[in-house]
Amino acid sequence: MLVDDHSSPSDQEKNTTTDQEEQPQQPLVIKKIACIGAGYVGGPTMSVIATKCHDIQVIIYDMNQQRIDAWNSAELPIFEPGLEEIVMERRGKNLHFTTDYQQVVDSDVIFLSVNTPTKYYGVGKGRAADLKYVESCARQLRDTIKSGRKIIVEKSTVPTRTSIAVKRILESGESKARFDILSNPEFLAEGTAISDLQNPDRVLIGGEDEESIRALSSVYERWVPKERVITTNLWSSELSKLVANCMLAQRISSMNAISALCEKTGADIQQVSFAVGKDTRIGSKFLQASVGFGGSCFQKDILNLVYLADHYNLPEVAKYFYGIIEINNFQRERFAKKVIHKLFNTVSGKKICVLGFAFKKDTSDTRETSSIFVCKSLLEERAKIHIYDPKVTKKQIMYDMKSIMNDCYDGDFSAKMESSRESELVESNIFVSTDPYEAMSDAHAILVLTEWDEFKQYDYKRVFEGMKKPAYLFDGRNILNRKDLETIGFDVYQIGKQESHMADW
Ligand code: UDX
Ligand code: ADP
């Protein structure tokens, strides 16, 4: 229950029943926070709140028992630098992972941190966010919380005006409870989630009820300087999250588009990026050309914005932002085509080593990773693909590849995947190694698709000796030392750089 810091229990009771207008403006104190959804966002966010606020009980609830068991075990379900240490330190003290819904009901603040994937069916297919998980959370809250006062916080990225839907559902039943809805979008990036949470550029809280905004701000202000906690109305908060991700992705797509031009003209994308980024109005971050951006947010959020613009009959706006995705797809296809072309226009039966399957370094997450799309193109050409990633499991890689090959990457059609021709193709042509040298041995080409630091440390002389000749290396992240590799004897291709052998083959 939300309690007034300085009031007696009887006053507190009154606070929950009398009209809010008459309430004295005293700070509310949050004693228990719950989060629905123990994923990449909910897990790290709540763990950091627990380390920063020892007096608050933090509950992470998920309907997926296996996921909760993993959070309670020695092997956490997600890899994120620094996460394990803080979970081990606070778990069982003020950090609890559970499938017991009553813990949610008893909390003062309830974060919604469930998945909001792009719809793969019906109206808005391929663009709109599927809000079924958010909606089902709202219905469950409405049906289980009968009285008292709760702050409901939207943490998952949602399309603008989702909070109206949540509010309507919460207010539609018999419940006598008071629900205040806040939008508090997450800006953490995977791989750096813990430091992003501990030292955020800003915390954004959107809402209508001043008291609830103040209560949530006071939690963050335990470790975030007050001036970095920004408050806005609900719609601005929801929209800002989408716009922030679009702007970041737009920078990458701009550089990826220019990388194609660099390869034709002889300009060097890293030199261009450095020169451009030195302008303080532009800044140097997110100007790294790559094989294409991945992750659960960028594409989904751009599509959300595109859908919203279309919905409000603004096709020019929709088209403008959709271009970011088109360049991303172009970059992935361009990379795969380059590999096929360089390998004498055929990769059929050839061993190709893929280094990196996660969508970026320091995460085990593979959602929307460019590796899936590059591997698909090569598999369609019947390459034998040997994949090594330091953190992604074989099970995940095989599942992702079967989904994409069966055309059900966006949906859950596991049954279809069981015994299809495409799944057999994956089984007989995709191999997952736990040893990078084994994956590279006897290969025609190495493709670096994720920027893991360890890829820079390998003994490439040894690798070269064990490979088929000519030995190709396609660096989709521009992380390796090209001169050194060429001295060893590799044919090297990097994004946005002139090729060493300009003539065909
Ligand atoms: C992103 C936002 O950064 C974060 O604020 C938001 O909360 C969630 O979405 P995330 O997707 O976890 O975070 O990772 P991010 O670091 O943004 O990287 C996204 C993709 O862009 C990765 O595939 C990365 O490799 C790629 N990238 C990033 C580039 O290709 N070039 C760059 O310069 C930067
Ligand atoms: P994100 O990257 O946004 O954190 P994830 O897919 O990693 O997304 O995590 C979302 C979690 O939300 C999943 O573990 C899923 O089981 C959980 N979830 C979805 N809907 C509900 C619900 N109605 N109640 C409880 N948990 C839910």
TrEMBL record:
SMART domains: UDPG_MGDP_dh_C. One of its GO terms (biological process) is glycosaminoglycan biosynthetic process. NAD(+) binds at residues 37-42, 62, 67, 114-118, 156-157, 190, 297-300, 367. Residues 353-482 form the UDP-glucose/GDP-mannose dehydrogenase C-terminal domain. One of its GO terms (molecular function) is NAD binding. The keyword Oxidoreductase applies. This is UDP-glucose 6-dehydrogenase. It comes from Naegleria gruberi.
